[in-house]
Amino acid sequence: MDLVSTDELNEMMERARRIRQHIIKMTNAAGSGHPGGSLSAVEILTCIYFKIMKHDPKNPDWPERDRFILSKGHAAPALYAVLAEAGYLPIEELMTLRKLGCRLQGHPSMKATPGVEMSTGSLGHGLAVANGMALAAKLDRRLNRIYVLCGDGEMDVGEIWESAMLASHFKLDNVTMYLDRNMLQLDGPTEKIMSIEPLADKWKSFGWHVQEIDGHNIREIINATEHAKETRGKPSVVICHTMKGKGVSFMEGVLNFHGKAPNDEECAKALEELGACRR
Questions:
Q1: pLDDT tens across 154-204, in order?
Q2: Phi/psi at 13 (nearest 5 deg)?
Q3: Measured distance CA(58)–CA(44) in Å, rounded
């Protein structure tokens, strides 16, 4: 069954393009930030907020909402852009990224920004907190689902694997983790820094339902999430094969843009590629 109509697909692709524009403008205006890993996660976040997750921007604390945790907190520009597109905050506010006293800090803060469920940035904690939320939902007999996005560099952190064991032990089938597998972390390629392959086999051995997809393919993301929802008795991980800096030719697969904002010339070139005027 096709879960996404052609009109929906086109609308989501257009929204993803706008989100990439926001990321470029925001990080350029701030003069700092993490564009590479933000751009690689755009389709995943677009699907979560505009097709998958049950939430209400007008009532961010709605008890029946699903929860999303950005465990790779350095990709905050992507999350802020999605929250603005969803109506949690004004589009114009995106240009205050990393400004003194602003609500859009360099890493997400649940005390500062509406729609942020967990303050993140110290890697490895997101899945553990997602497990707590999921277990609480089960104890309260609520139907909330918990979604968490991790980075592949984050797989070096021991807490991830402790959390993997816990989720499997408690059969937290209301947890879905997306892994942004762009193959690059701060210091270099993941397989040179700390090899994590065979990754799918590792998660299977920890008792998880595992799927591998193209993390830039909207249909595949939505279909994989539906399979995760249908899975009973075990948590799900969706390994999303992505490209660091996706959508901007000179950023794609380039380690330097992990934590380097585009300068004015690069910003103009990127926005031209993304079909936007720089305003």
A1: 999 999 999 999 999 999 999 999 999 999 999 999 999 999 999 999 999
A2: -65, -40
A3: 22
Give the whole-angstrom CA distance, residue 17 versus residue 254: 20
Question: Do residues 215 and 150 touch, judged by C-beta distance below 8 A?
Answer: no
Tokens representing 212?
């591998």
C-alpha distances in Å from residue 37, one per residue of 69, 80, 247: 15, 14, 12
Domains of the chain: 6-273 (3.40.50.970)
User: What is the spatial distance between Cα 73 and Cα 25, in angstroms, rounded to a whole number?
Assistant: 19
What is the Cα Rg of the chain in Å?
18
The per-residue b/e assignment along 117-153, b for 16 or more CB within 10 angstroms, e otherwise, is bbbbbebbbbbbbbbebbbebbeeeeebbbbbbbbbb
Backbone angles phi, psi at 179, to 5 degrees: -105, 115
> How far apart are the C-alpha atoms of 246 and 182, rounded to whole Å?
9
